[in-house]
Amino acid sequence: MKSLLLLRHAKSSWENAHLADFDRPLSERGERDAPRMGRLLRREDLVPDLIVTSTARRAQQTAERVATYSGYEHDIEYTRDFYHAGPGEYLAYLAQLSDTWQQVMVVGHNPGLEELLELLTGEAELLPTAAIAHVRLPIHRWHELNEETEGELVAVWRPREVS
Prior knowledge:
Elements: E1 2-8, H1 28-43, E2 50-54, H2 57-70, E3 76-79, H3 87-95, E4 103-108, H4 112-121, E5 132-137, E6 152-157
Helix pairs in contact: 1-2, 3-4
């Protein structure tokens, strides 16, 4: 079985109104929440084998902080495919991964992540900024992952509920 962690980027800053959406950095709250969620992954023994993130600045910063605070030891993969992505783009990217990766985390954006979570589990969950959903997938190879895959929602963690 494979395991998928869905992480919505941490809270972004709107301080500079002239920045394009893609270029917005983390806010102070985002800077606090991302490390908190990284520590949670370490505590829960859910450090990913691979982290793949959107190339939007706030998503990259989230992925990098979560990686540092979780003890993640590999390179992070960056893809523009996750920016404004729907479930199909996430599934297509994941389906081409090497089967050596057992537990993969994607860092992306709503509404696509919430839609992906509902598609894979049949459960509608709110994923506020920096929330993580853990989905267990009944597949042995990533190329088996598609819109028909019936995963199990194991847990959802939201930063305000995590100490």
